[in-house]
Amino acid sequence: MFIDYNESYEQIREAVKRLCADFPGEYWRQKDSESGYPTEFVQALVDTGYLSVLIPEKYGGSGLDLKAACIILETIHKSGGNGAACHAQMYTMGMILRHGTKEQKQLWLPHIADGTLRLQAFGVTEPASGTDTSRITTSAVRDGDDYIVNGQKIWTSRVGHSDLMILLARTSPREDSSKPTQGLSVFMVDLREEVGKSITITPIETMINHSTNNVFFDDLRIPAKNLIGKIGEGFKYIMDGMNAERILIGAECIGDARFLIQKASEYACEREVFGRPIGQNQGIQFPIAEVHVQTEAAALMVEKAATSFDELRTCGTEANMAKLLAADASWKAADVCMQTFGGFAFAAEYDIERKFRETRLYRIAPVSTNLILSHVGTHVLGMPKSF
Ligand SMILES: Cc1cc2nc3c(=O)[nH]c(=O)nc-3n(C[C@H](O)[C@H](O)[C@H](O)COP(=O)(O)OP(=O)(O)OC[C@H]3O[C@@H](n4cnc5c(N)ncnc54)[C@H](O)[C@@H]3O)c2cc1C
Q1: Closest Cα to atom 13, ligand 1: which residue?
Q2: N or C: which end of the chain has fewer CB within 10 A?
Q3: Structural domain of residue 322, as residue ranges?
Q4: What CATH number corresponds to the domain at position 60?
Q5: Residue 168 alpha carbon, nearest atom of ligand 1
Q6: Is the minimum distance from the CB of 387 to ligand 1 under 6 angstroms?
Q7: CATH number, domain at 195?
Q8: Which of the listed residues 207, 233, 259 is the one where a domain comes to its end?
Q9: Each residue's pLDDT tens digit, 15-32
Q10: Is the pLDDT of residue 329 over 50?
């Protein structure tokens, strides 16, 4: 992706590749087997400034564009690693940048940039609401200079490795709002003093190593000055931030797909059965070639979406389409790679079964394929809405 456009992108790609060489397959397999957080890898990204590339220079970041961030995440995944342990920090800070006050920016951004504050977590999804965010019930009720929060979030990833968390909560009842998505507000939660008191975190065991959790709020007090943007307008802000998230995750999927395609094509050349390389059989060769074509097409859509984002153009549809195409390509690449390796695909040492599990997530989160198709069907093609 983004090759030939800008020499500095290629320098970033090479530098991230070098960094990733210190975190080979064994490292990720070990973390996977013990459900461990890749603290050393995340620290290396912080130390080299790659996690803060989107933060403007005046707040201590390097002020690069989304394309640069895409290259960083794509390269991590192409090397067999996984950016999910920390990718949220790249885009969640956009909430402060776009909607925060001058004081909030000054208070948080420089510390996020220098790594002294970790903003890895955001709590939107709830068990009963599912994709219908307008039905979340976690409430924030004003009480003097504070809001008091009660409720539960689910799938709040990385919250145990975060100092701050972006929270979406209802500040006025759904029935009293002009639209179902009105009356939701965004807050910054400082987790450091509250975990174990008014915030309870319980990890969810999952098929991938993703540090994801249930989070319960029991009379959590948040200072009113931690409200981000206008009261009741939070849904819009969350949607805004999702474009960057979808594009960046699309880039990760492209990295996964390229990792798996390379593994499959190399193995197809090396492995001999019936006296010839299996890749000589078109039943093995064509699926690999086909998913390569799909991946390169998906990469163009990711690039188009990132370009629109960087040029401040509306990019919701492109971001959705990029995520869908890239997630489908990486999932297909995982399946093709499994088939190419045959029984050996199941051996953890090849990293294929791990990537097979990891890349499956992105057809579901952060937004599922069906919901993207619904967006395209109704918003782009003008067909009637199903909900
Ligand atoms: C590992 C992991 C990490 C996550 N991290 C976070 C996080 O950090 N923060 C956070 O807030 N959330 C997080 N999520 C939540 C994630 O964004 C949601 O799981 C995702 O948006 C889907 O919502 P749901 O699981 O509630 O599915 P549901 O909304 O229950 O949907 C279930 C299925 O039904 C389909 N469906 C629903 N409605 C329709 C319809 N009208 N038409 C057609 N199909 C439909 C969906 O496409 C989906 O396939 C994470 C999830 C996972 C699994």
Answers
A1: 155
A2: C
A3: 236-380
A4: 1.10.540.10
A5: 11
A6: yes
A7: 2.40.110.10
A8: 233
A9: 999 999 999 999 999 999
A10: yes
User: Ligand 1 in contact with 123 (CB < 6 A)?
Assistant: yes
Q: Does residue 172 register a pLDDT over 70?
A: yes
The answer to whether 165 touches 122, Cβ cutoff 8 Å, is yes
Q: Distance between CA atoms of 13 and 75, rounded to whole angstroms?
A: 6
The single residue listed with the structure tokens 């163009």 is 300
Instruction: Please report the beta strands in 224-344, taking only residues with DSSP state E, as ranges in sequence order.
Output: 227-228, 272-273, 276-277
For residue 385, tell me if it sits in a domain: no
**Contact 201 CB / ligand 1 (< 6 Å):** no
CATH number of the domain at 247, please.
1.20.140.10
Please tell me the predicted confidence (pLDDT) of residue 4.
Answer: 47
Total domain count, the chain = 3
Q: What's the CA-to-centroid distance between 76 and ligand 1, angstroms?
A: 25
Tell me the whole-structure pTM to 2 decimals: 0.97
| 364 Cα: distance to centroid of ligand 1 (angstroms) | 6
> 240 pLDDT band (50/70/90 cuts)?
confident
Nearest to 368 by CA among 313, 335, 331: 331
Q: What is the model's pLDDT at position 5?
A: 54
- Give me ligand 1 centre to Cα 27, in Å: 29
Residues 47 and 154 in one domain: no
- Residue 1 inside a domain? The answer is no
The H or E element containing residue 385 is none
Give every CB contact of residue 100 below 8 A, 6+ residues apart in sequence: 108, 228, 229
Q: How many angstroms separate the alpha carbon of residue 349 from the centre of ligand 1?
A: 31
With a 6 Å cutoff on the Cβ, whether 211 touches ligand 1 is no
